[in-house]
Design brief:
- It is a single chain.
- The protein is an alpha+beta fold.
- The protein has 9 helices and 21 strands.
- A 6-stranded antiparallel β-barrel has the order 2-3-7-6-5-8.
- The longest helix has 33 residues.
- Bound molecules: zinc ion.
- The site of zinc ion has 7 residues, from helix 2.
Length: 389
């Protein structure tokens, strides 16, 4: 069993330890075991530490059968004494986020008499899954309550209560525990069995910020940022909001209204453009020579529905045929309507000359056609179609 120095002092970063095992593993790392270590191995939802050990970079720390394995990028000689240093930036960030998670979980589990059923501490954010649906109108209050623990600089104490005391104690735990239980108490806010590393006082967490809440497996998944992560996030979001506000000439807390206004103006303009586009098609059809029975229309960005509507209208007006083409990702989308009930015949001819896929009835076919625009126009002009430019 490796001696766990991090439980004696979670704030110590430097130590000396003796190498008792070192072997290259299949994962490309050297698995190094010391007699004692300050490196925290992944556990209790908290990722493992990284840092330096005797000049060797330690990328991760894991635990196997009571032994703490340091994942080194180089080997270390067994028997020698080495100096280790834990990456404090990484460790302290995890401590802030783990303690923040406890406080928020404690508040939520107390308020809704629910359980924390999942916890993942990623390098970007922390997610916590609760067994109940948390009303969305409560989220801001819960966040404020969690931050209140920080403002009060609530102490986080770690104890190993006796069996009798433990039986009387109300504490959160994801599983039934046997033997010595490590209890992390955050004042009135939380009491939880945990093997992770925590800050001494909630003030060190700095800030607790929820950045998302969604329904998850019948309960709620909350995404959380604490400490520097929360500050960095707020700086980034504030910068983006300021930038949008500057572009829209409104204060950043009014950008939502300003964007909604732009969206409705844009929707109105789209409708207006559609109306004018339609008018111009009607004019094109009106301007066709009296004797023109068959029409070819090449139009930009028409929906399938509008293509069919336009082809129908033109064929009806002229009592003949109408072919409407619009550029698509691959060639052109087309709709061919024929009052002469020979849409299939023309489609068959198209298939002979072009790469064409389509289907429909005698009155109308639609599909996709690939080919040069001028050759397509020529094909229809040869058949007596008038190209409505
Ligand atoms: Zn914990």
């Amino acid at each position: 069993m490796t001696e766990r120095l991090y439980y004696q002092n979670a704030y110590a970063t430097k130590f000396m330890g003796r190498v008792i095992f070192c072997k290259e593993a299949n994962d490309g790392c050297f698995h190094i075991v010391l007699d004692k270590t300050l490196f925290y191995p992944e556990g209790g939802g908290q990722p493992g530490d990284n840092g330096v050990l005797g000049g060797v970079r330690i990328l991760d720390t894991q635990e196997e059968n009571g032994q703490i394995i340091h994942y080194g990028d180089k080997p270390l000689e067994v028997g020698i004494e080495v100096r280790g240093e834990v990456n404090w930036t990484w460790r302290f960030d995890l401590m802030q986020n783990h303690s923040g998670e406890h406080i928020l979980s404690g508040i939520i589990c107390n308020k809704y008499s629910c359980d924390n059923v999942g916890f993942h501490m990623g390098k970007d954010s922390v997610t916590i899954d609760f067994s109940v649906q948390i009303p969305s109108q409560d989220l801001l209050w819960l966040e404020e309550k969690a931050n209140e623990a920080i403002w009060r600089n609530t102490p986080l104490s770690i104890t190993y209560p006796s069996k009798n005391t433990l039986e009387q104690l109300e504490y959160r735990s994801k599983k039934e525990l046997f033997g010595e239980v490590r209890i992390v108490q955050a004042g009135e806010y939380d009491c939880c069995a945990c093997c992770g590393i925590h800050v001494r006082f909630a003030g060190e967490i700095g800030m607790i910020k929820m950045i998302g809440a969604q329904n998850y497996k019948g309960g709620t998944r909350i995404e959380l940022l604490c400490g520097k992560r929360a500050l960095t996030y707020l700086q980034r979001v504030n910068q983006a909001a300021s930038e949008v506000g500057r572009k829209l000439s409104v204060p950043e807390d009014k950008i939502d209204e300003a964007v909604s206004k732009i969206q409705s103006e844009r929707d109105m303009l789209i409708q207006e453009v559609k109306k004018w586009k339609w008018q111009s098609f009607l004019m094109k059809i009106e301007q066709l020579p009296e004797n023109a029975k068959d029409v070819l229309i090449l139009a930009d960005e028409l929906s399938g529905k509008d293509m069919a509507k336009l082809a129908d209208l033109a064929a009806e007006k002229k009592n003949g045929r109408a072919m409407v083409l619009t550029p698509s990702q691959r060639g052109y989308a087309f709709v061919l309507v024929s009052r002469k009930k020979d849409a299939h015949v023309i489609e068959t001819e198209l298939k002979k000359q072009f790469n064409c896929k389509g289907g429909g009835k005698e009155e109308a076919v639609q599909g996709i056609i690939e080919g040069d625009e001028n050759i397509l126009i020529q094909f229809f002009e040869e058949k007596g179609f008038i190209y409505a430019k």
